[in-house]
């Protein structure tokens, strides 16, 4: 009922839209690693992991309403989490841990833990693995706690645990690893027992059978997948909230801190009542763990070891770790699959739940005979305690019973106009099957005004190839750049003569324009797209659905060639380009809309093409904000400019020299700039710091979004100057600047000046030799920027640092033309090009002949010829692009038949794709090459099938994904191993059905027979334990953490000698109470977030030290006392 009460009748965006929209089709697609249907052709990302049990569950129940299937899945998940925890607690010791009532309470709090409530409605695949942790661990606990299990019992326990591992699925391999780790730790703690090794001999093979089906596909994915982990969330984001307070609360998942889509998660991280309740629960669990050690409860120290392992995993990359930089670098590099360490939450939360069950077991629950006590609860302590526990549980689970487990924007159904549009495209009569459909406008995720599907609604409906620019397409970075180049053509809403040709080159034959996206989807909207299509040649509106919510446009002629069909091009006809794939639409425009195939300089070398080169100003050094598609790119940067983002790479990488800003006469250092893509609202490329010194009064440096007050730009001079004069002009409003001159980092003098709008004003700065000048805004009215400033020496020399955009020229290559452009709007484009010797005579053309264009300061017009001497030349233009064609360069000409040929398809490059040509009955594997910077092609040597025409050759080349057969064979073999495991498990259970000493999953009452303290893990000496905890404290909080732990140990050891009233409980309550108070007072979303406070971190280190070391010290004192008594006897 709990799950059915969550937004009834509404389907929500949980994990994959296909699971509710077309589960059988989704599972069928998962049987192939490669698909040409998904954007630009791609390797499916762990789609095989949904085959079992997640996808199969939804497929088998696909006859039910979508929302109901979701809720039944969640119900199964919560039931398994609850029942598994109860059984695990029952198995811990001869009589279980705690009382029956406390075990039920603990199980409820595990099933509705912050981790599960945060992920259940939005990405239940992660919550599923947490729910199965107790079931994986349970057989291990039972068998290693049994006195003398038989071989059949041991095998049954191993298979039971492995079946639970099988049920994890493989949506995320790291999440599966995290779910198995508690059981591994339990085994390691008992490895000295002979039973442990006999169990391991069964457990490992059974585990291999359980995991075999997904290991092979995972290896194939790792071998052939593009490096998309570089472009998704960074370790700096995923580990930012790993402070001890959040780790103990179980709120380490980073998504709720950045988005309120997950209602329960957002409440847990930001509402004080939940912050206090969850941290209080964690403290109760810690005290319960301490109590288990004091009362010598079986397995007590295993939970402390497990907790310590969890704290280490979270702490090593946490905000207070002294090795956080190294850890985060590892997670952003070789350890990228482990980047989301929050998946290891069970290592922390499960021990806390166990401790809570033990602690609450001391609370007696009034029975029927004491029912009268409820009339006067204040007189009866058990009633008060039960009431308090009930209130705590109610508070902790409030996000669940208040129907906040679901993410926002649920929907009743996908509107019919989407189904109708997909049916139209799927109809073979309309020809979309022979082309690719591009969904416009781009959007980070599919959040429509009728609901949030997260995945594209068309994804589960289309059988024809399609493409959309979403947050991070799972294709190579070069293909993303090529896709972005086309997407930008729609941003201006202006007509384009060459857009249809550029789309055809990408295999796009149809456009699906949707108008139902919300702003939350991070989309530029459909208006500019529709304006461009209706005013550009080559587009025909074919159909409209709904009230214009979805429109379909055809690209080009209806009787044209299939856009996605293989194509043939002669290598001599290729245009060699020094640039990135994003420049292709610009080149198509410069060529008058005539489609032409191209190859980048890096790929041209592999083909032996050494002819003239088209030089462009791409790729440019920019900073890209991954995860958004609106204003995600900065203006062109200098190599030394600060990097605001946290990702391991600044932008989608591509081979080739970059166009960069060259700094001369010093450098400029802004506190922030409007072109910062990580700022709110994205980048404004018209307001970089370069605009303050570009000599153009129409541009200006603006700080990043927010108030400009206290923002600054510092000029670092090439050499010290005795007394400076400042000339400045403001834009937007009058600026009050506090000007400070510095020398060697020390202030020389300062003054405050008023900078007017629209005109320059010169100020003489106070005397004193300075090498830095800081201009800090101390007053402005609304949005204001610094349009221009310059610094001059007493002799009139301009000492202002300059920033010029320099276009590299390939060394040793003849240049046929320069095609320069505003890939992203700049207002006025400024570029410095280098003309190789002996110079060139160029003809000028631009995107707009009415635009202002100059070369070396002299105005030029379309069609004008210029003589350019060897060396650098400056080009300025307000046009979108400028072409300078060298009229003295002879273009290479192909005779049409001679030379090598390339057969390529407009799909993304992948090392696993193989092209073969059948020649005289022999299959010849072709050499892979790259065309247009991103398209997969294969080289056909001139002596191979020379008699074939280009059309016949394109049709004769067969394309396959090399690992497909291995992938499917592995899945089939994995099915066999899974059936073998299930069969062996069922047989063992059937044969042991009458054995009351069985320790299988289905026999909970026997697994804890004769559990002794000897079954607990071997305890290190007190000194070793102290050193180990010192290491953990260092990881958690550095040297201050070690000192805090040392002081705590000193007080615990020597405090009672000074005052007998010193107790560990006092230290625990004081430090834990302080941390709770501070974190509750300043949760996430408030000023001075307490999770970033070292006081809170150190307080919790003290709290943990009192819990961990006090029981260890007591254990060893008791052991020594018993040993002394034996010796005396």
Automatic annotation (TrEMBL):
Keyword check for Transmembrane helix: yes
Protein species of origin: Corynebacterium variabile (strain DSM 44702 / CIP 107183 / JCM 12073 / NCIMB 30131)
Single annotated GO MF: transferase activity
Source species, domain of life: Bacteria
Gene: aftD
Official protein name in the record: Arabinofuranosyltransferase D
Keywords: Membrane, Transferase, Transmembrane, Transmembrane helix
InterPro entries in alphabetical order: AftD_N (IPR021798)
Region of interest (Disordered), ranges: 624-654
Location of the Alpha-(1->3)-arabinofuranosyltransferase N-terminal GT-C domain: 2-649
Annotated transmembrane regions: 47-65, 71-89, 101-121, 127-145, 157-188, 200-221, 266-289, 301-323, 344-363, 383-403, 970-990, 1028-1054, 1096-1113
């Amino acid at each position: 009922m709990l799950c059915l009460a969550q937004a009834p009748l509404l389907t929500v965006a949980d994990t994959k839209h296909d699971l509710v929209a077309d589960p059988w089709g989704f599972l069928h697609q998962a049987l192939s690693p490669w698909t040409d249907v998904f954007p630009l052709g791609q390797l499916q990302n762990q789609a095989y992991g949904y085959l079992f049990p997640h996808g199969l569950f939804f497929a088998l129940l696909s006859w039910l309403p979508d929302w109901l299937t979701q809720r039944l899945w969640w119900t199964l998940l919560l039931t398994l989490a609850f029942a598994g925890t109860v059984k695990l607690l029952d198995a811990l010791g001869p009589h279980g841990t705690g009382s029956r009532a406390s075990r039920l309470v603990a199980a409820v709090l595990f099933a509705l833990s912050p981790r599960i409530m945060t992920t259940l409605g939005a990405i239940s695949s992660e919550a599923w693995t947490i729910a199965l942790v107790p079931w994986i661990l349970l057989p291990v606990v039972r068998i290693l706690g049994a006195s003398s299990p038989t071989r059949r019992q041991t095998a049954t326990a191993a298979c039971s645990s492995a079946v639970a591992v099988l049920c994890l699925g493989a949506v995320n391999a790291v999440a599966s690893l995290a779910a198995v780790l508690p059981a591994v730790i339990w085994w390691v703690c008992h490895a000295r027992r002979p039973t442990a090794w006999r169990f391991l001999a069964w457990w490992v093979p059974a585990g291999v059978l359980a995991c075999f089906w997904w290991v092979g596909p995972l290896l194939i994915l790792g071998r052939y997948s593009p490096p998309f982990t570089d472009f998704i969330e960074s370790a700096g984001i995923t580990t930012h909230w790993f402070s001890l307070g959040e780790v103990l609360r179980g709120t380490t998942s980073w998504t709720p801190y950045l988005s309120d889509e997950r209602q329960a998660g957002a409440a847990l991280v930001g509402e004080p009542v939940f912050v206090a309740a969850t941290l209080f629960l964690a403290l109760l669990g810690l005290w319960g763990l301490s109590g288990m050690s004091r009362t010598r409860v079986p397995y007590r120290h295993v939970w402390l070891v497990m907790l310590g392992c969890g704290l280490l995993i979270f702490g090593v990359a946490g905000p207070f770790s002294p090795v956080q930089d190294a850890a985060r670098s590892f997670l952003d590099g070789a350890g990228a699959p482990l980047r989301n360490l929050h998946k290891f939450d069970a290592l922390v939360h499960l021990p806390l739940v166990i401790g809570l069950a033990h602690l609450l077991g001391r609370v007696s629950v009034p029975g029927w005979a004491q029912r009268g006590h409820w009339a006067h609860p204040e007189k009866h302590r058990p009633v008060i305690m039960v009431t308090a526990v009930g209130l705590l549980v109610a508070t902790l689970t409030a996000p669940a019973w208040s129907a906040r487990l679901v993410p926002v924007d649920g929907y009743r159904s996908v509107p019919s106009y989407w189904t109708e549009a997909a049916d139209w495209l799927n109809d073979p009569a309309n020809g979309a099957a022979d082309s690719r459909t591009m969904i416009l406008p781009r959007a980070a995720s599919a959040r429509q005004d009728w609901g949030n599907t997260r995945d594209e609604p068309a994804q589960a409906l289309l059988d024809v190839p399609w493409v959309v620019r979403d947050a991070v397409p799972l294709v190579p970075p070069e293909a993303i750049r090529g896709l972005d180049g086309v997407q930008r053509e729609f941003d201006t809403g202006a007509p384009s003569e060459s857009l249809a040709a550029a789309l055809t080159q990408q295999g796009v034959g149809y456009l699906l324009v949707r108008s139902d996206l919300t702003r939350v989807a991070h989309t530029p909207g459909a208006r500019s797209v529709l304006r461009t299509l209706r005013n550009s040649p080559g587009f025909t509106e074919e159909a409209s659905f709904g009230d214009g919510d979805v429109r379909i446009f055809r690209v080009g002629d209806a009787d044209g060639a299939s856009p996605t069909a293989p194509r043939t091009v002669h290598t001599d006809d290729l245009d060699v380009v020094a640039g990135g794939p994003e420049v292709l639409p610009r080149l198509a425009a410069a060529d008058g809309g005539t489609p032409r195939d191209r190859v980048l300089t890096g790929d041209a070398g592999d083909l032996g093409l050494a002819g003239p080169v088209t030089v462009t100003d791409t790729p440019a050094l920019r900073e890209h904000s991954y995860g958004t598609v609106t204003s995600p790119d900065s203006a062109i940067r200098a190599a030394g400019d600060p990097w605001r983002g946290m990702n391991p790479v600044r932008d989608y990488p591509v081979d080739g020299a970059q166009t960069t800003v060259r700094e001369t006469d010093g450098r400029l250092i802004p506190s922030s700039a409007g072109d910062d893509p990580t700022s709110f609202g994205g980048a404004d490329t018209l307001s970089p710091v370069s605009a303050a010194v570009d000599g153009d009064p129409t541009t200006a440096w603006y700080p990043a979004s927010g108030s400009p007050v206290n923002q600054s730009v510092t000029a670092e001079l090439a050499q010290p100057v005795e007394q400076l004069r400042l000339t400045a002009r403001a834009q937007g409003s009058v600026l009050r600047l506090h000007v400070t001159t510095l020398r060697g980092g020390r202030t020389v003098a300062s003054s405050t000046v008023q900078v007017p709008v629209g005109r320059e004003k010169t100020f003489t700065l106070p005397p004193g030799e300075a090498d830095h000048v800081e201009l800090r805004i101390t007053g402005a009215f609304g949005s204001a920027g610094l349009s221009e400033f310059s610094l001059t020496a007493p002799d009139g020399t301009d000492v202002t640092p300059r920033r010029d955009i320099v276009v590299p020229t390939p060394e040793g290559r003849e240049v046929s033309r320069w095609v320069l452009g505003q890939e992203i709007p700049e207002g006025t484009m400024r570029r410095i090009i280098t003309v190789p010797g002996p110079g060139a005579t160029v003809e000028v053309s631009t995107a707009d002949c009415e635009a202002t264009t100059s070369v070396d300061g002299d105005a030029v017009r379309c069609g004008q010829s210029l003589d350019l001497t060897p060396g650098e030349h400056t080009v300025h233009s307000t046009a979108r692009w400028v072409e300078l064609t060298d009229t003295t360069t002879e273009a290479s000409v192909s005779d049409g038949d001679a030379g090598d040929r390339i057969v390529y398809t407009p799909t993304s490059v992948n090392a696993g794709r193989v092209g073969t040509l059948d020649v005289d009955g022999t299959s010849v594997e072709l050499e892979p090459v790259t065309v247009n910077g991103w398209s997969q092609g294969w080289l056909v040597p001139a002596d191979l099938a020379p008699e074939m025409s280009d059309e016949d050759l394109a049709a004769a080349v067969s394309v396959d994904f090399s690992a497909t057969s291995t992938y499917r064979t592995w899945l089939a073999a994995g099915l066999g191993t899974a059936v073998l495991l299930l069969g062996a498990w069922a047989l063992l259970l059937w044969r042991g059905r009458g054995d009351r000493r069985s320790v299988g999953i289905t026999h909970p009452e026997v697994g804890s027979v004769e559990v002794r303290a000897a079954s607990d893990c071997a305890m290190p000496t007190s000194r070793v334990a102290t050193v180990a905890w010192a290491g953990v404290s260092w990881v958690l909080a550095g040297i201050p953490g070690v000192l805090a732990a040392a002081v705590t140990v000193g007080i615990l050891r020597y405090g009672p000698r000074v005052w007998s009233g010193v107790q560990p409980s006092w230290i625990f309550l004081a430090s834990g109470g302080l941390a709770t108070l501070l974190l509750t007072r300043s949760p996430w979303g408030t000023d001075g977030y307490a999770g970033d406070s070292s006081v809170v971190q150190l307080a919790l280190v003290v709290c943990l030290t009192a819990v961990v070391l006090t029981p260890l010290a007591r254990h060893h004192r008791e052991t020594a006392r018993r040993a002394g008594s034996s010796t005396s006897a």
